[in-house]
Amino acid sequence: EIVLTQSPATLSLSPGERVTLSCRASQSVSSNLAWYQQKSGQAPRLLIYDASNRATGIPARFSGSGSGTDFTLTISSLEPEDFAVYYCQQRSNWPLTFGGGTKVEIK
Amino acid sequence: EVQLVETGGGLIQPGGSLRLSCSASGFTVSRNHINWVRQAPGKGLEWVSVIYSVGSTYYAESVKGRFTISRDSSKNTLYLQMNSLRAEDTAVYYCAKDLAVAGSGGVFDYWGQGTLVTVSP
C-alpha cells in the first residue's frame, strides 16, 4: 500500500498569505495524484487531479505541482473560504489511498 | 446538474448488516465508475470500493468479503451492502463519481453529502 504523508499537519495563516502544502508518497505515483478540500461538515471537493490539472470551477489561485514522490499544492493568496482541511490522494496503485490531511486554520 | 444522495445509514449492532443507497441524477450510473469512500469521526478519508462502468468491482482489504457494491440501472442507484459490521466500520460513507468513464479512473469529481453509519452495542 502506498502511504501518503502530508505536512505540516496544521498551518495557521492569515487571509492574503501564500500557502504551500506538501504530500510525499512512499513510492512513485508518477503524476497520479489529486488534491481535495474539505470544509467542516461537508463532503470533499476535487481541486487538482493528475498533479497539476485544476478541476472544473476551481479558482486559478489553486495550483499543483510535482511528480514521482513529492507533490505540492499552492494557494497563491488565501481567501476566507479557503480555510479547510486538504487531502492528497493517489490512484497509481491499489488500494487508492489518501494522505492524513493538512488543516489550514485562521491565525 | 450532477447530484448524489446517500441514504440508509444509522445505528447498528456489531455483526449486523446495513445497505446504503446512493441515488444519482444528472448522469448515468451504469456508464460511470462510482466509488464509496468513508471517513471515521474526526479522521481522514478511506477508499472503500469501486464499481467500474463495465461492471467489475474492487474493495479495500479492510472490507473485502464483508461489503458488496452493486448498482441498479433502472433506478440509477448505487448500493453498498455491508455485512458483519464492526465498530471500526463506524464512519460517514460517501459515494463519489469518478472523473473518468473508462480506464482505471481514481479521481473523484462529485461527492454526495454522506450518510453516517454507527456500529455500537
Structure description:
- The complex is a heterodimer of chains A (107) and B (121).
- By secondary structure, chain A is mostly beta strands.
- Chain A has strands spanning 4-7, 10-13, 19-25, 33-38, 45-49, 53-54, 62-67, 70-75, 85-90, 97-98, 102-106.
- In chain A, strands 2, 4, 5, 6, 9, 10 and 11 form a seven-stranded mixed beta sheet that branches.
- Chain A is globular, with a radius of gyration of 13 Å.
- The termini of chain A are far apart.
- Chain B is an all-beta fold and 121 residues long.
- Chain B has no helices and eleven strands.
- In chain B, the strands form two sheets. In chain B, strands 2, 4, 5, 6, 9, 10 and 11 form a seven-stranded mixed beta sheet that branches. In chain B, strands 1-3-8-7 form a four-stranded antiparallel beta sheet, with no helix packed on it.
- The model of chain B has no long low-confidence stretch (mean pLDDT 96).
- The interface between A and B is medium-sized, with 24 and 22 residues.
Write the topology of this structure:
The complex is a heterodimer of chains A (107) and B (121).
Chain A: E1 4-7, E2 10-13, E3 19-25, E4 33-38, E5 45-49, E6 53-54, E7 62-67, E8 70-75, E9 85-90, E10 97-98, E11 102-106
Parallel strand pairs in A: 2-11
Antiparallel strand pairs in A: 1-3, 3-8, 4-5, 4-9, 5-6, 7-8, 9-10, 9-11
Chain B: E1 3-7, E2 10-12, E3 18-25, E4 34-39, E5 45-51, E6 57-59, E7 67-72, E8 77-82, E9 91-98, E10 108-111, E11 115-119
